[in-house]
Amino acid sequence: MNIVFTPGEDFENLIGKAEFNVVASRIAQAATLKTEKAGGTTVDLEAARAAARTQNSGTNGSNPDSGSNTNGSTSTGDNSSGGNDTNSTPRLTINKSGTGAASVTVNGNAVNSGAEIAANTEVSISVTPAEGQIPTATLNGNSVTLTENDGTYTGIFSMPSANATLAINSGSTGAPDDN
Description:
The longest helix is centred in the first third of the chain and has 12 residues, at 26-37. It is elongated and about 90 Å long. The chain folds into two domains: 20-76, no CATH class; 91-172, no CATH class. It is an alpha+beta fold. The chain has helices spanning 9-12, 14-17, 26-37, 45-56, and strands spanning 66-68, 74-76, 91-97, 101-106, 109-110, 115-116, 122-128, 134-139, 142-143, 147-149, 152-158, 164-172. The strands form three sheets. Strands 6-3-12-8-9 form a five-stranded mixed β-sheet. It has a five-stranded antiparallel β-sheet with strand order 5-4-7-11-10, with no helix packed on it. Strands 1-2 form a two-stranded antiparallel sheet.
């Protein structure tokens, strides 16, 4: 038996007529919804991705943005090289201690621990210590200069080209470092 199938005009041009719509990842959708519910107006997608990676680390591809490559491995987000994250953007780990308040921002947007920040990007620190307390900050063990203005201390550093750890103590007593 020999069957010959000749597709009609609509079927032949199916791919040419197809429309593809870009859709935000589940992580982006969840971060947007969370921000909207909280009454916010700005979504930090890098922080959302970092939080999802941290939350899903060691779960063998159960990340909501995971998908199968043609070779059967999984990819996360924009990483198309397989299951291993080959993204070379350094991450900033933030360790806060003390009784005061501290925040870290890039271009005015809040940064959470684990966020990916491009090398040489200016990172700002703002610390409001409890009364009588003197804040300190270190990046990879080296002091970050904090300048006081009306009870709030601010500092700026350039993100290194490798992962870094920022330690902020918003409430230590004693004289400020001269470093």
